[in-house]
Design goal:
By secondary structure, the protein is an alpha/beta fold. The protein has 23 helices and 26 strands.
C-alpha cells in the first residue's frame, strides 16, 4: 500500500514527464523560432549549471599543461592515418601517442615536481647561478636537436650542451621531431642525426618529412649546423639523412653556420671525430657570428664539481623504463666455445611486442670497472657524492647519492677516450713534464693505434699514470652518459604474449689497452650474464624497422633468413611464430634459414628446437660449419651455403620471397654480394650486350631498389 508521500512522488513524476514532453513539443520547428530572444536556457549553464564543471575544465587545463611541461609527445605509429570511432562520442580510432621525458628531466626530478618541489628547470637554474656567481654574464640561447635510435647521437647532443656553457651559451636539447614546423631563429641551431637504412631515425621522421614538404623560404632566419653519424660499409646510404637535412635547410632559406661534420662508425672513433668538428669548426663559427666566448684556456676545467661524503644513500636512480623479471637463464654453447646465452624475461602485461622487435636494456657497469674507479680515486666503499653543475648534465645534481650508484648507472666507464680527453689529462700534468709529453704524443700521431684501436678509456689512462692528479668531477664530466643497449628479441608473442627471450654473445677477452693482461668486459653482456631467475631488470620494447617483420600474407609470401652466431635471435622468433601458426592450422609459404656457426655439436644454437620445427614444416634449415665444412656440403660460411643451394633460393625468389639478414656488417655485405652475383649472371644470360660498367650499374640499381622492400637487414658489430 502506497503512503501519502509515495503517492505524492508518483504524481510529481507524472507531471514532470508531461512537462518535459510538452516542452519538447514547444521546442520543435516553428515553435522554437517563435521564442523570444534569450528565452532558451538549457540546464547545462546558467544559475542551475553543474558547479563542478568549471573546476573540471580548469583541472583538465592544468593536467594538459603539466604533461606538456614535462613530456615530449610523438606519434606511436608515424604512418598513422586518421580513422574515426563513434560510441557515445566521436574519437580517433587506434590513435596512440608516445611520451618521453623532456630533456633535463629524469624520473626523480619529475617525482619531486609532482610533490610540489621546485621544477627541474628551476632547480637547474638555481644551481647554475650558484655555481656561476652573480657577476657571470647572461648566456646566449642555443638549440640542439638530435635524431637517434640507439642513443649515440643523443649522447653527442648531451656532450655538446655541456660544452656550450663554457662558450657562453645556454643550450636546450630536444628530438628533431620537436622542431617540426617551429625552428628557432636568432640563435645557433645544431642538428645531430644518423640514418637508419637510409631513412630518418624514429624521432626525426616527422621533421624530415616537414622539410621535404617546404616550397619556399619558410626557414629563413634560422642559423644551423649539421653533424651526421654513419657507417661507410653501407655505401649507398652513408650520411644520407644528415646530407638531406643540410641541403633542405639551405635550400629553403636557412643560413649555414658551419660546414656539416661527419663521423664514420667503422673507425670506432665517433666521439673523437665529433670533438674535432666541435672544436675546430662549430664553436669558432658560432662565437664569430653570435658572440659568446672561446673555450677556457685551462683544459682541465669543467662544469662538474663534486663533494665527497660518506652518508647513506638517500635516493636511487630511476629511469624511463619498466621493471621485468628473469624467469630462465642458461648457456647455449659447450664449454670452451665463445659463450652465447639464453635469457627468458617476464614482461609487464601491457608491454606488447612483435617478432623481430628489440628489447632495450638499462644495464650497469661491471663491478670490476666500478672497483677500479673507486680504487683510483681512493673512495671508501660507502662514499656518497653531492654533485653540482654549471651546465646541463645527466648526473644527479643536488642529491646525496652513492658513488657506486653514479659509477654503475649514469656514465660509460669503458668508452674509448677522445683526443679532447687525452689533452685534458695532459693539461692536468703541467707540473709533470714526462707524463705531459707522453699524453700529448698519445693525442697526436699515435692516437688511433694506441687509443682508438685498443679501446683505451680515460680510466685506463688514469691507471697508467697513478701519480697524475685529476679531480673526480672532471673525470665524470668527460664520460658519456650510460646508454640503453638493444637486443633482438628471439621469441614470438604468439608463443607467450607476456614473455620474451634474448639470445646474445658474451663479450669478454684480453684488454688490448692493458699490458698487465686485464680483461675487457662488455658492459651489457656482463650485466645480462650476471642475471639469474628471479632477478629484476629494467627494460623497454623498441620496434625494429618496419621492413624487418614477417610478411602479413604468410601463406603466399616465402621468406629467406640468413645469419651467423647470435644473429639467429630474431629468426628464432620468426620460426617460432610460423610453427605456432602451423600448429593452429594455417598454411605457410616456404621459409629457408641459413645459419653459420663453428661446430655441429658445440655451438649449434637451439638445435633441437630447429630440428623439430623443420620436421613440422615451419622452416628448411641450411647450416655452414666454419670448423667442420665437410658436414655442411663443404661450406664454411653462409654465403657459400647460399651459392650451393642456388636452385632453392632461385625458386623462392621467383615466388616473391623476402630476404632477411642478421649479423655483422661482413655477413650483410657477403649476402648482398651473393644476391648481386645471381642478378649479374641473369643479365649476362639474357644476352644484353652491355659494357661491364653498364652491367655493374644495373646490378647496383636493382639491389638498391630491393632495400627495405625485399631485402631487410639488422646489422651489428
Amino acid at each position: 500500500m502506497r503512503t501519502h508521500s509515495d503517492r505524492k512522488g508518483y504524481i510529481l513524476a507524472i507531471l514532470t514527464s508531461w512537462a518535459i514532453a510538452n516542452q519538447g513539443r514547444q521546442m520543435l520547428d516553428e515553435h522554437f523560432e517563435k521564442l523570444p530572444a534569450a528565452a532558451w536556457k538549457p540546464f547545462g549553464n546558467g544559475m542551475r549549471a553543474c558547479i563542478g564543471r568549471p573546476f573540471a575544465w580548469q583541472e583538465s587545463l592544468l593536467v594538459v599543461a603539466l604533461l606538456l611541461q614535462h613530456f615530449n609527445f610523438t606519434l606511436d605509429n608515424p604512418n598513422y592515418k586518421l580513422q574515426l570511432k563513434q560510441t557515445l562520442t566521436i574519437k580517433p580510432k587506434d590513435f596512440y601517442m608516445r611520451a618521453t621525458l623532456r630533456d633535463g628531466i629524469d624520473a626523480t626530478k619529475l617525482e619531486r615536481a609532482m610533490a610540489g618541489s621546485a621544477t627541474a628547470t628551476e632547480e637547474r637554474v638555481k644551481h647554475e647561478n650558484a655555481a656561476a656567481g652573480k657577476d657571470e654574464p647572461a648566456r646566449r640561447p642555443m638549440s640542439i636537436f638530435y635524431g637517434s635510435n640507439t642513443g649515440t647521437c643523443e649522447a653527442l647532443a648531451q656532450r655538446l650542451s655541456t660544452s656550450a656553457a663554457s662558450h657562453g651559451f645556454d643550450a636546450t636539447i630536444g628530438i628533431m621531431d620537436s622542431a617540426n614546423g617551429k625552428l628557432p631563429k636568432g640563435r645557433p641551431v645544431v642538428f645531430i642525426t644518423a640514418s637508419f637504412e637510409g631513412e630518418p631515425p624514429d624521432n626525426a621522421m616527422h621533421f624530415v618529412e616537414w622539410l621535404r614538404s617546404l616550397s619556399g623560404n619558410e626557414v629563413s632566419g634560422t642559423s644551423f649546423a649539421v653533424f651526421g653519424c654513419g657507417h661507410k660499409d653501407w655505401k649507398s646510404t652513408y650520411q644520407r639523412i644528415p646530407k638531406l637535412v643540410d641541403d633542405l635547410l639551405l635550400a629553403h632559406g636557412a643560413a649555414k653556420v658551419a660546414e656539416r661534420g661527419e663521423a664514420d662508425a667503422s673507425h670506432g672513433d665517433i666521439f673523437t671525430e665529433f670533438d674535432t668538428w666541435e672544436d675546430a669548426q662549430l664553436w669558432p663559427a658560432i662565437t664569430e657570428r653570435f658572440g659568446g666566448k672561446p673555450a677556457a684556456g685551462d683544459a682541465t676545467a669543467s662544469a662538474i664539481s663534486v663533494e665527497i661524503s660518506s652518508k647513506k644513500r638517500s635516493s636511487n636512480l630511476r629511469m624511463d623504463v619498466r621493471e621485468a623479471r628473469v624467469t630462465a637463464a642458461h648457456s647455449l654453447t659447450a664449454p670452451g666455445e665463445p659463450q652465447k646465452r639464453h635469457l627468458e624475461i617476464q614482461l609487464p602485461s601491457d608491454m606488447p611486442y612483435r617478432a623481430g622487435d628489440y628489447l632495450a636494456i638499462l644495464s650497469v657497469n661491471p663491478r670490476e670497472s666500478i672497483n677500479r674507479v673507486m680504487k683510483r680515486f681512493q673512495l671508501p666503499w660507502d662514499a656518497h657524492l653531492n654533485i653540482s653543475s654549471s651546465a646541463p648534465t645527466v648526473l644527479p645534481i643536488a642529491n646525496d647519492i652513492s658513488a657506486q650508484d653514479v659509477l654503475s648507472t649514469y656514465v660509460e666507464l669503458s668508452q674509448p677516450a677522445t683526443k679532447k680527453n687525452v689533452l685534458a689529462l695532459a693539461a692536468a700534468a703541467s707540473d709533470q713534464p714526462a707524463i705531459k709529453a707522453e699524453l700529448e704524443a698519445l693525442a697526436s700521431d699515435s692516437f688511433h693505434a694506441e687509443i682508438t684501436a685498443k679501446r683505451t678509456s680515460p680510466l685506463d689512462l688514469l691507471e697508467r699514470y697513478p701519480a697524475l692528479h685529476f679531480p673526480l668531477g672532471d673525470f665524470l664530466a668527460m664520460l658519456p652518459p650510460m646508454r640503453m643497449r638493444q637486443y633482438s628479441i628471439s621469441s614470438s608473442p604468439l608463443s607467450s604474449p607476456d614473455r620474451c627471450t634474448l639470445t646474445y654473445s658474451v663479450v669478454e677477452g684480453a684488454a688490448m689497452s692493458s699490458p698487465s693482461g686485464r680483461r675487457h668486459i662488455g658492459v651489457a653482456t656482463a650485466y645480462l650474464s650476471s642475471l639469474e631467475p628471479g632477478n629484476i631488470l629494467q627494460v623497454s620494447v623498441r620496434p625494429s624497422a618496419q621492413a624487418f617483420h614477417l610478411p602479413l600474407n604468410v601463406s603466399t609470401a616465402p621468406i629467406v633468413m640468413v645469419c651467423a652466431g647470435s644473429g639467429l635471435a630474431p629468426f628464432r622468433g620468426f620460426v617460432q611464430e610460423r610453427a605456432t601458426q602451423l600448429a593452429a592450422g594455417r598454411k605457410l609459404a616456404r621459409a629457408l634459414l641459413f645459419v653459420g656457426c663453428r661446430y655441429r655439436d658445440r655451438d649449434r644454437l637451439y638445435a633441437e628446437e630447429l630440428d623439430a620445427w623443420q620436421s613440422a614444416g615451419a622452416v628448411d634449415v641450411f647450416y655452414a660449419f666454419s670448423k667442420q665444412p665437410e658436414l655442411s656440403r663443404g661450406c664454411a660460411h653462409v654465403q657459400d651455403r647460399m651459392r650451393t643451394e642456388a636452385d632453392a633460393l632461385r625458386k623462392v625468389w621467383e615466388d616473391g620471397a623476402k630476404m632477411f639478414v642478421c649479423g655483422s656488417a661482413k655477413v650483410g655485405e657477403a649476402v648482398a654480394q651473393v644476391c648481386k652475383e645471381a642478378y649479374r649472371e641473369r643479365i649476362l644470360q639474357v644476352g644484353e650486350h652491355s659494357t661491364e660498367a653498364e652491367v655493374e650499374a644495373k646490378v647496383e640499381a636493382w639491389f638498391a631498389a630491393l632495400r627495405n622492400e625485399r631485402f631487410a637487414t639488422d646489422v651489428f658489430d
